[in-house]
Predict the structure.
Amino acid sequence: MTSKEPPNYQRVVDDLRSRILSGQLGPGDKLPTEKELQQRWGFSTTIIKHALTLLRSEGLIEGRRGSGNYVRDRTQLVRRAHSRDMRKRLGSTSPFARDSEAAGKQPTWEANSRRIPATPRIAGRLGLQTGDLVMHTTYRYLADGVPIQLADSYEPLSITGGTPIEYPEQGPVIGVVARMDFIGVNIDRYVEEVTSRPAVPEEADALELDRRGGRWVIAIERTYYAGQTAVEFADIVFPGDRYRLIYEVPVDPWSPSADSEKP
């Protein structure tokens, strides 16, 4: 029994993807024109255009009006979950700023904060009652001017209200851990739930994604805790091709059990 041949467009995608990932076609290199690809493969314009659309949706190439298609620079920021909030790390107290600078990128971000009543979902995450006031801050993070990440952050005003850090971007320090330290709230852990899903139109626009082929994003639901109290919850979204996640998880030291000891 022979395996079924892939569709014609998939053959073009697989070939170009392989050449890009292997480095045969590097960042900034121009792809063959649509006409050249038609001549090479003997496929119709529709098939070639569909293949290129899929490669754009994967973040591997970008189209330049009047010039053609080029391999994208895929330099990724590295997000080390285990160490990014360590208090003794040098540099900015913003984890995003440290991630960007480590990759040789200039970090900037846009933020807008307002008081809102907690929805049932947010109240459940923060251990509040529905309708309790929280500070909602929306963020768009950029590295060298390129959108990298979106976030919606929620903090209970029962904790931050009336303090110098009530508005996250207007206080004396930035970054959730450093801000909470400033008012004597000692964050000792955080929990992240990671999934992937298609970007909604608003996210695709904010992240400047090519929506013609559909784009998937990594979505993280993060909660910071001080003891048993949730002090911040955030919905974080970024394209998988712009960030690399690294999780370092400690393992309990091994010791021989009584059952394994020889008599």
